[in-house]
Every structure is written in C-alpha cells, then in structure tokens.
Amino acid sequence: MSAITHSRDAGPVTQGEFAFSWADFHKIAALVHGEAGIVLVESKANLVYSRLAKRLRAIGLRSFRDYCALVESEDGIDERQALIAAMTTNVTKFFRESHHFDHLAKVVLPDLAAAARRGERVRLWSSACSSGEEPFSMALTLLSVMPDAAEHDILILASDLDPNMIERGEAASYPIARLDDIPIPMRASLIEVESSKSRFRFSDKVRNLVRFRQLNLLHDWPIAGKFQVIFCRNVMIYFDQPTQDGIWSRFANQMTPGGHLYIGHSERIATDTQPFTVAGQTTYRLAGTKQ
C-alpha cells in the first residue's frame, strides 16, 4: 500500500486494492468517534485502510465508498459493530500493570472482604475487559485475599463494547502459554488444563465471580448499583479531552465514597476538576470517608 497523501490533495488516500478517498476516511472517523469516542487523526489512515480492507474482502465490497454507504445505512448495524471492533486495540494480558493488583490485594480488598462478611454488597467493575484477562486477574486476586468470596454478595462486572471479546471472556479459555502470566500460587485449584493440553480454563470458582456484559462507555450504563472498585485502563488515550472528562465524572457518580479507580500508565485524572485524589501509581480514590 502506498504512503498517505495529505487531505488537501485531490487524489485518493492510497493506491491500494480498494479505492479509499479522504472523504471515506473522514466518514469512517466521524462514525467511530460518534459510536465509540475514538479519535482517528489523518495519520491513522493507513491503519484504517489495513484493518477495514479485511472487512471489504469478507463481505464482497469493491470500494470504501460502498462500505461507507453500508455502515451509514439502516441495514448496516451489524457491520458498524464490526467496524468498531476492527478499530479497537485489544492488547491485554493477565496481571498487566501488576502494581494495580498488588494495591488491590494489600490496600483495598481486606476492608471490602470484611464488609462482605458483614453482609454488605461489594462490586468491582472491569469497564473495558477485552477478552477477559483483566477481570479474571481481579477474580484471582480477590480469591487470594478472600477464598470464601463466592459465599458472599461480591461480584465483578466485566464489560466491553465488542461482543466478540465478551464471547471470548465468557468462554474463559486461553492458550496454555498464557499461564506464565499468572502467579503460581493462584493456579493449582483455580485452573483446569483442557484435554487438548494446548489451552486452560478457569474453574467454576473463578468464573462464577465474573459477569460479562456488552456495554459502550459512551452510551447509557444500565447498571443499578455502585462500585467500590473500577478498572478502566488504557482506554482514555483513544478519547478526546471532553470525552475523558465526561467518563471520569460518570465513574465518580457510579462509585461509593472512598472507592478506588485504576487507570492506564499513560493516563491521568485532573484532581483539581474531578472528585478524586491520588492513591498510588495510576490509582485514584473517590472523595469520601468510606474505604
């Protein structure tokens, strides 16, 4: 595929397999921003082409003009979802940014375990769970602190805008090589090696702590209760500042006083405008007295 030309030029974006104009790029960028909040600048045009060319081949279209017409039509709902999925980056691993799980285990969960044993409702949320590695890391951490968690009112919500990721998370099945990312003490009674020996699956004790749901952070959140812990990591980097500010505020409204929010290593919350204080490395605590 050829290099990108500047949008002021009259020619196409590329001279590749499919005709792809700057008008096509800007329509796709606007749709992606409107649906998922992701900002696609012109320097991402090659990435857009390479990822969506696979979709054009799969559905038998000959140009991006035709593709834009499809995703903008009433019949294009399913393909719009496929477009958003193609534009999102699902880079994840078990216990990624391990300092968050150390903080969760040592600082946050002891008090939450005590609250659960008193009969209180405890909820944690992995708000961009991808294929499930993050919420299952949360569940393993929870069980390391509270082995009897299943006997109490404590659950982890795992949500993502991509239904394919939700399906993979619900399956709870992963390549055997990924075991290396999970601490050895957490493996013995919580992980089952599948008959093929090439994959493993989490036990019922782990899976039953996690509820997977499709959810778009930019749209309505059909969530009744509040959370003591929210993970939202390496998501805001794709949003513009007003979108980030709006989601941070919505998280604050969805949390209990003193709740903890874990964010990505490249992300920051403006504590002068948001009701959070720094509680650790890329870890924030909502204003309030309850831990």
Q: Could you explain the architecture of this structure?
A:
By secondary structure, the chain is an alpha/beta fold. The chain has two domains: 22-87, Chemotaxis receptor methyltransferase CheR, N-terminal domain (Chemotaxis Receptor Methyltransferase Cher, domain 1), CATH 1.10.155.10; 98-286, 3-Layer(aba) Sandwich (Rossmann fold). The chain has nine helices and ten strands. The chain has a seven-stranded mixed β-sheet with strand order 6-2-1-7-8-10-9. It has a three-stranded antiparallel β-sheet with strand order 3-5-4. Helix 5 (98-117) crosses helix 6 (133-145). It is globular. The N and C termini lie far apart (54 Å). 35% of the residues are buried. Residues 1-6 have low confidence and may be disordered.
CATH fold node name of the largest domain: Rossmann fold
Structural class: alpha/beta
Number of domains: 2
SS summary, helix count: 9
Oligomer: single chain
What's the N-to-C terminus distance? Answer: 54 Å
What portion of residues is helical?
25-40%
Q: What is the string of helix and strand elements?
A: HHHHHEHEHEEEHEEHEEE
Our Rg estimate from Cα atoms comes to: 21 Å
DSSP strand content: 15-25%
State the strand order across the main sheet: 6-2-1-7-8-10-9
The largest pleated sheet is described as: 7 strands, mixed
In total, how many beta strands? Answer: 10
Give the mean pLDDT. Answer: 90
**Coarse shape:** globular
**From the coordinates shown, what is the CATH architecture of the largest domain?**
3-Layer(aba) Sandwich
Uncertain segments are 1-6
